[in-house]
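User:
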Amino acid sequence: MIGFESAILSKKRFSDRKVKVIAEDSMDFNGKDVVIVDDIASTGHTVCEAAKELRKKKAKSVNVICVHALLVENALEKIKKAGVKKVYSCNTIAHKTNVIDLGEVAAESLRGN
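Assistant: Predicted structure:
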């Protein structure tokens, strides 16, 4: 819809803090700026593993957009250490990464538009 390539990364969850993320070989990430889109980033383990996998696939840069940024237990620092350049989140939960304002979208929905 937006004119960019996309891929879905596979995730296997072993526990709350142990996941494995696999980027299928059908897409070439080499030299590309990649954006991970996630619904909720709480402890950051999934985002970290995804970023590590994309860096192994030679992504030029990795950024993250998430709807709900809980980012507990020093998650933001862990995510950056995993190679993520920047995290952008919606303002559904107050956090310093909030840059996407959903206020008008929510208001329109409540008005029935």
